[in-house]
Amino acid sequence: MFVDLRSDTVTRPCAAMREAMARAEVGDDVYGDDPTVTALEERVADMFGHEAAVFTPTGSLSNQLGLRLHVSPGGELVTDSAAHVLRAELGAAAAFSGITSRSWVAPYGVFRNADAEAIMQPDAGPYLVSTQLVCVENTHNFGGGTIQSLQELTALRDLTRSHGIGTHLDGARIWNALVATGESPREHGALFDTVSVCFSKGLGAPVGSALLGSAEAIAEARVWRKRYGAGMRQAGIVAAGALYALEHNMDRLADDHRRTHEVAVAAAQVCPDVVDPEKAPTNILPLKVSALGWDAEEFVAAARDAGVACQRVAPGVVRFVWHLDIDDAQTAHAKQVIVNLLAHKAD
Ligand SMILES: *Cc1c(COP(=O)(O)O)cnc(C)c1O
User: Fold this and answer.
1) Residues 282-341: pLDDT tens digits?
2) Is 48 in contact with 214 (CB distance < 8 Å)?
3) DSSP H or E run through 224
4) Entry pTM
5) Nearest atom in ligand 1 to 57's CA
6) How many CB atoms lie within 10 A of CB 111?
7) CA of 58, closest atom in ligand 1
8) Ligand 1, residues at Cβ distance < 6 Å
């Protein structure tokens, strides 16, 4: 048995999703003629209570389109130091948009409005950089699938509005937060000027993300999407996969959360310093294997030899991510391998 838990991006479209993609009505989306892309954009914008959305090939692009709408060259965005937009988009905000960044350290990626407030510098005058955007990630990827508090996010909205600062949600895995909490997409949509969502993570579509915002903001994002070379033609083929994913793969995210929790509890039983199961509330399980003397690379190699693929994400830390191609039997196998490797070092 081989269990690939490196990421929730490794899923492959099922037969029914492929069939929906094959049957999709298409047109040239650069001319606005693709009915399937348009249907997806309208549906996802409406879900979050935003006026409009633009379909993009990746979440990095939808984030980057969002950031540049808010921040002018030389201006600043602030976020936490482990945010995907800072760590995993290869400096795109600086390279493409001339955006400078400052960050605060957020244990487990937990967002606290006070951290943003302490670092923000609205209208800093001619000597210091002015903050134009606060970016929040929900769930937080490197934090361990962390769910952000609606109360803290509401406080951020009030704070930023009073200073004329924009807000962007990196909601690549917002679906996991919504399924875990029962909160509505509209509640979250109302708290941000722009929202980026991914269809290619837990929802299991092969390709695609979207940026949501006001009609005016999204019209501008469309210009930049084309300028970046991502104006796609008969993209309805892939948009159909995203529509299928929204319809069929949302509720089952709860299964990923249940399986992640089960393995977290088993790992914590071997050694509580490896993981606090409460800190892995959705589908991402980071294990601090160094707490038992493991080198992260060695752990990854040993797990792979036993048929389980994971990833090193920080010194001494490896990550397992649950997704729709992993069932209970594969979870049981992964749990056994993880417990054996941890217990072996614990002896
Ligand atoms: C995956 C991810 C993205 C987007 O990634 P792409 O690979 O560019 O689609 C953005 N933010 C977070 C938090 C992610 O996990």
Assistant:
1) 999 999 999 999 999 999 999 999 999 999 999 999 999 999 999 999 999 999 999 999
2) no
3) helix 215-227
4) 0.97
5) 9
6) 25
7) 9
8) 58-60, 63, 84, 137, 141, 170, 172, 198, 200-201, 209
